[in-house]
TrEMBL record:
Taxonomic path: Eukaryota, Metazoa, Chordata, Craniata, Vertebrata
Gene3D superfamilies the UniProt entry points to: 2.40.128.680
Domain of life: Eukaryota
Region named Disordered: 1-24, 81-101
Cellular component terms (Gene Ontology): ribonuclease H2 complex
PANTHER family with a match to the protein in the record: RIBONUCLEASE H2 SUBUNIT C
Xref: InterPro entries: RNase_H2_subunit_C (IPR052863), RNase_H2_suC (IPR013924)
Record protein name field: Ribonuclease H2 subunit C
A Gene Ontology biological process term: RNA catabolic process
Length: 147
């Protein structure tokens, strides 16, 4: 009897997983040569640091800007998640002190998995266009030899 029955559809090729009951299909994508992907993490610290140098008679201590600041003032404001610039107080921050946000790389990668809902992402996926852009930009900005 097993020989008389055939599958209606062949099993899918590539990667397949399920997330919250939805089928996801994916494939490995290589980062273009000469480029590298980074996993970025954000760390929050109080703005600057207080200058407690000896002999200071000032009642208020000045804030000294830290030299390692990479990115600042990218905060989300409002319930709708509207992006804006400025400082905001975080629930875990010290009262009265605004927080600086530092962004740094925690890992790097040269390939990743591109997932699509129900089907493998096609050639028109926006990620593929973004990966093709550096090569295209290099080609259109290259010097043209004079003939």
């Amino acid at each position: 009897m097993d020989q008389a029955l055939t599958e209606a559809r062949p099993p899918p090729s590539g990667l397949q997983v399920s997330f919250r009951g939805r089928s996801l299909r994916g494939e490995e994508v290589e980062v273009p040569p000469g480029l590298l992907g980074y996993v970025m993490v954000m760390e929050e610290k109080p703005v600057g640091k207080q200058d407690f140098s000896a002999g200071s008679d000032r009642e208020e201590q000045e804030l000294v800007e830290p030299p390692e600041a990479l990115e600042r003032d990218f905060v989300s404001t409002g319930a709708a998640g509207v992006r804006g610039c400025g400082r905001e107080r975080r629930p875990h921050a010290e009262p009265g002190l605004p927080q600086d946000r530092f962004i740094g790389a925690s890992a790097s990668f040269s390939r990743f998995t591109l997932w699509g809902l129900e089907t493998t992402p096609g050639p028109d996926a926006k990620v593929r266009a973004a990966l093709a852009w550096p090569g295209l930009a290099e080609a259109i900005h290259a010097q043209v030899p004079q003939d």
